[in-house]
């Protein structure tokens, strides 16, 4: 059965599946707060895999790439609720509450798990909107996002340095970032934003660092990794082509033959 992502209101999404489902790569430009109602989510990012277990609340930092695998519970259900903490609401909240941060969050942690009774109750309070027994007006939707912000700050005051950092993303090391994230199949625009660059600056810096275009380098890098998996790990393309950013097997086989002059079965 297909996975369903239902938008309850513009910042609240309810996800439900009944069998293991591999999600696509996604770029999250905003922070979001999530609750695993049933089953578990395996979130894969550049630092590894994090497992979000049932009845867990998680705060996910903005500006990152994540690929998910959704696993239903033994009862056959997977349910996840995510509410976006959008920049406009955070800006407004900061102005109203005179919040000005003096330092940036320096940690590398990308997800924060908060086993908090009030946050759990908050997500349970969203049930009427998910079950369609109550409709969320724009004003009510805004209040629910603000309530989430209040509960997060109450659970951990240090979240102020994450939620209200409105400084522009500064340039990060392009070579390190690309080598850690080449397997994510997202637009070049997302890579540019994540490294703190405009499209033109990203392409210019990329050519200087890699002596190649982003499109050509990404394909070569993915194919080199594929060759390694086939030759040294004896893995089959069907097992990894999606994980390396290829959209379909046909494209992978054609690209592999063009680069190496061999089919995958001829690699020894």
Automatic annotation (TrEMBL):
<dbReference type="GO" id="GO:0043565">
    <property type="term" value="F:sequence-specific DNA binding"/>
</dbReference>
<dbReference type="InterPro" id="IPR018060">
    <property type="entry name" value="HTH_AraC"/>
</dbReference>
<dbReference type="Pfam" id="PF22200">
    <property type="entry name" value="ExsA_N"/>
</dbReference>
<dbReference type="InterPro" id="IPR054015">
    <property type="entry name" value="ExsA-like_N"/>
</dbReference>
<dbReference type="InterPro" id="IPR009057">
    <property type="entry name" value="Homeodomain-like_sf"/>
</dbReference>
<keyword id="KW-0805">Transcription regulation</keyword>
<protein>
    <submittedName>
        <fullName>AraC-type DNA-binding protein</fullName>
    </submittedName>
</protein>
<keyword id="KW-0238">DNA-binding</keyword>
<dbReference type="GO" id="GO:0003700">
    <property type="term" value="F:DNA-binding transcription factor activity"/>
</dbReference>
<keyword id="KW-0804">Transcription</keyword>
<dbReference type="Pfam" id="PF12833">
    <property type="entry name" value="HTH_18"/>
</dbReference>
<feature type="domain" description="HTH araC/xylS-type">
    <location>
        <begin position="172"/>
        <end position="268"/>
    </location>
</feature>
């Amino acid at each position: 059965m297909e996975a369903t992502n239902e938008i309850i209101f513009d910042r609240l999404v309810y996800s439900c599946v009944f069998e293991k489902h591999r999600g696509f790569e996604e770029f999250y430009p905003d922070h979001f707060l999530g609750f695993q109602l049933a089953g578990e989510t395996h979130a894969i990012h550049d630092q590894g895999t994090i497992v979000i277990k049932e009845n867990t609340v998680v705060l996910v930092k903005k500006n990152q790439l994540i690929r998910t695998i959704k696993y239903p519970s033994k009862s056959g259900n997977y349910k996840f609720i995510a509410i976006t903490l959008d920049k406009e609401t955070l800006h407004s909240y900061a102005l109203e509450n005179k919040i000005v941060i003096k330092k940036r969050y320096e940690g590398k942690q990308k997800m924060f798990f908060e086993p908090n009774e009030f946050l759990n109750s908050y997500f349970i309070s969203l049930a009427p909107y998910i079950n369609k027994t109550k409709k969320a007006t724009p004003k009510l939707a805004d209040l629910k996002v603000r309530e989430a912000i209040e509960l997060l700050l109450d659970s951990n005051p240090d979240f102020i340095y994450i939620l209200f950092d409105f400084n522009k993303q500064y340039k990060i090391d392009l070579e390190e970032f690309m080598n850690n994230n080449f397997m994510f199949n997202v637009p070049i625009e997302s890579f540019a934003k994540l490294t703190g660059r405009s499209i033109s600056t990203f392409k210019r810096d990329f050519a200087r660092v890699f002596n190649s275009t982003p499109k050509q380098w990404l394909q070569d890098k993915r194919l080199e990794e594929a060759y390694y998996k086939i030759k040294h790990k004896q893995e089959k393309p069907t097992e990894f082509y999606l994980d390396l950013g290829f959209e379909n097997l046909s494209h992978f086989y054609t690209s592999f033959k063009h680069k190496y002059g061999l089919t995958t079965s001829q690699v020894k």
